[in-house]
Amino acid sequence: MKLVNLEKLLPSDIPPGERVLWFGRPETKSLWRRAYRADWVIAWFALAIAWASLSALSEGTNAALVAGLGTLALGVLALAILGLLAWLSARTTLYVITDRRLIIKSGIALQIFINLPFAKIVAANVRVFGDETGDVSITLAEGQHVAYIALWPSTRPWRFVKPEPTLRSVPEARDVAETLGQALKAALEQAQQDDAAPASEDGAELPATA
């Protein structure tokens, strides 16, 4: 994706001088499997096909075959619907890391922009899957809260009480986590330097640095 396209997708709330360090989207297949639980759906329908076939076997082989194929058709339809939703989610979701904040854009029908300045983030964790995609989860500072429903699917699964914003199913997740970690570290060091800056001898404050 080119930077010009990124500018079209973001609101004009990134101030001049703020650098974009990384941006990307979820990988559709990984999102389909992990956020939309396609693997679980496949396993469930496999059991349902076996159960339907065995239950109808007493009525004959043809009846068992028809029952199994009918359940299989429902399973394929369900997976196709989940695949479409995953594709739409991946197409309408954008993650951006700047040198000052993390931005999450999501929403198929209604676009939502969530700005998370680094001052509100205390930690970041990564979980990498076998296909090298992964989830980069964010721990927010005490007192900070974003609604789970507003974040989904860009949130860590099952964390309803204290939702953790998450870059879901991003390619090269280790590199993304490293970029975010370095940006958080640099922002923390800058904040500490600003706090430790001495006042001038005449008592006037020193000019702030960018």
Features:
single chain; 210 residues; PH-domain like; 2 domains; four-stranded antiparallel sheet; disordered C terminus
Provide the domain count.
Answer: 2
Q: Supply the CATH architecture of the largest domain.
A: Roll
Alpha carbon gyration radius? 23 Å
- Dominant shape: elongated
Number of helices: 6
Sheet of most strands: 4 strands, antiparallel
- Write the CATH fold name of the largest domain: PH-domain like
Q: Element order, helices and strands?
A: HEHHHEEEEEHEH
Highest CATH level, the class of the largest domain: Mainly Beta
Distance between the termini: 29 Å
**Sheet/helix structural class:** alpha+beta
Question: Could you describe the 3D structure shown?
Answer:
This protein is an alpha+beta fold and 210 residues long. It has helices spanning 3-9, 28-34, 38-56, 61-92, 148-151, 173-196; strands spanning 20-24, 94-98, 101-106, 112-117, 121-128, 133-140, 166-171. It has a 4-stranded antiparallel beta sheet with strand order 1-2-3-4. A 3-stranded antiparallel beta sheet has the order 5-6-7. The model is unreliable at 199-210 (pLDDT under 50). Helix 2 packs across helix 4 and helix 3 (38-56) runs antiparallel to helix 4.
Task: Chart the SSEs and their pairings.
Elements lengths: L2 H7 L10 E5 L3 H7 L3 H19 L4 H32 L1 E5 L2 E6 L5 E6 L3 E8 L4 E8 L7 H4 L14 E6 L1 H24 L14
Antiparallel strand pairs: 1-2, 2-3, 3-4, 5-6, 6-7
